[in-house]
Amino acid sequence: MQDKKLIWQEKSRKKGGEYRIFTVDAVERVHEDGASNTFFAIESQPWITVIPLIKEDGVEKFVMVRQFRHGSATITTEFPAGIVDIGENPVEAAQRELNEEVAYRSHKVTFLGANNPNPALFTNHMHIFLAEDLTLLPNQELDPDERIEIVKIPVTTVLETMGYGEMDHALMVMALFWYQRHLMKNS
C-alpha cells in the first residue's frame, strides 16, 4: 500500500480552547511533498450510546429519549448517550447513562461496536451497546441541564424512520447500523 504518501506528520500542537466536554487543539502538520497547514483536533473523552431493548405486549421496542439539541435548535429522538467519565470504562458509562436518562438498569449489556464520530475533527470514539433484560428504576437522575422525555418506540418504527425528522442524528444512525449488524450475525 502507498499509505506513506497519505500521511501528514505532526510538527507542533498548540492547546486552544478548553470547554466543559472537549478541548480544541491547533495542530501544524507537514506532508512529504512540502505542503503544510494548521488543522484543528477536538479532543474529548470517549462517548457511549446505549440501545435499550424491551418487549411490551409482545412488541419489541427501543427505550429512547426526546430532547432539545442546542446545535440544531431542534427536538431530537435518540438512544440514551453520553460521555465516559474519567476513570470509568465504556460499559460502566453505558449502564450509568441508561440509569440516569431513562431510569432502567440492564442485566445484559452487549458491546456492538465503536467508531470515530468524525475523524476529520475528533480524536475519540463512540462505543455502542445493546441493553437487554431491563429493570425499571424509580426515577431518572438527570444532569442539571438535561430535560428529557422518555419514549418507547417499536423497533420496526425506528427502522423505518431513523435518519429523518426528529431521528436525523447521524450518531444514532450509526448506532442503529451496529444493532442491525448484531442481528445479522446472530440470526
Automatic annotation (TrEMBL):
InterPro entries cross-referenced by the UniProt entry: NUDIX_hydrolase-like_dom_sf, NUDIX_hydrolase_dom
Catalytic reaction(s) noted: GDP-alpha-D-mannose + H2O = alpha-D-mannose 1-phosphate + GMP + 2 H(+)
GO cellular component, one term: cytosol
Protein origin, superkingdom: Bacteria
Pfam family, one: NUDIX
Cofactor: Mg(2+)
Limits of the Nudix hydrolase domain: 43-180
Molecular-function annotations in GO: hydrolase activity
GO terms (BP aspect): nucleoside phosphate metabolic process; ribose phosphate metabolic process
Swiss-Prot/TrEMBL keywords: Hydrolase
Protein family (similarity comment): Belongs to the Nudix hydrolase family. NudK subfamily.
PANTHER family in alphabetical order: NUDIX HYDROLASE DOMAIN-CONTAINING PROTEIN, UDP/ADP-SUGAR PYROPHOSPHATASE
Protein name, entry field: GDP-mannose pyrophosphatase
The organism's taxonomic lineage, starting at the top: Bacteria, Pseudomonadati, Spirochaetota, Spirochaetia, Spirochaetales
